[in-house]
Design brief:
The chain is an alpha+beta fold. The protein folds into two domains: about 1-75, no CATH class; about 75-140. The chain has helices at about 55-75, 75-95, 95-105, 110-135; strands spanning about 20-25, 25-30, 35-40, 45-50, 140-145, 145-150. Strands 1-2 form a two-stranded antiparallel ribbon. The protein has a two-stranded antiparallel ribbon with strand order 3-4. β1 and β2 (about 25-30) form a beta hairpin. The two termini are about 15 Å apart. About 10% of the residues are buried.
Length: about 170
């Protein structure tokens, strides 16, 4: 299928002119107020502006994560697993929108983002939902030299930027 350019008639997706950092459950502007233009490799045009985040933004995200850590850590394994399963469901419900967005962002063929990248993202959330349910929180001897310790220590933030790395 051929997809219309985002924001044009018949397109499955459109982009806002500017995005913020997602911190504490909401989009917020970068602390230093700096943005960069992300250009699509599909047509060389600017998709949108994104935050040029700094250590101050990471600190803000860490503060939000620390504020949520106690409640998340006390959430049952079943409920945490259900959260990840709901994310996987939402990804699958928006498969085409996410795939086309990803294609315009990184230049990959839409057949790859539609049939591999985005479905695999949903699958990863389902996998880790299963891992949460299987987590025991103990110690296990792997071999005579290795012991694995399992701690209940929730991860609540991620500061990263990545672009597609597979061949187009």
């Amino acid at each position: 299928m051929i997809y219309a350019q985002p924001g044009t008639p018949g397109a499955v997706v459109s982009f806002k002119p500017r995005y913020g950092n997602f911190i504490g459950g909401q989009f917020v502007p970068p602390v230093d107020g700096q943005y960069f233009s992300n250009t699509s490799p599909v047509n060389g045009e600017v998709i949108a502006e994104f935050p040029r985040s700094t250590a101050a933004d990471i600190d803000k995200a860490l503060d939000a994560a620390h504020a949520a850590a106690d409640a998340w850590g006390k959430t049952s394994a079943q409920d945490r697993s259900l959260v990840l399963l709901k994310i996987a469901d939402r990804i699958e419900q928006n498969l085409e929108i996410l795939a086309v967005s990803e294609t315009w962002d990184n230049g990959k063929a839409v057949r790859e983002t539609l049939n591999a990248d985005v479905p695999l993202a949903a699958d990863h959330f389902r996998y880790f939902a299963g891992c949460i349910r299987a987590q025991e929180g103990g110690a296990a001897e792997i071999n005579e030299l290795t012991t694995a310790y399992h701690f209940h220590e929730p991860w609540a933030w991620s500061g990263r930027s990545s672009r597609g790395t597979s061949r187009c």
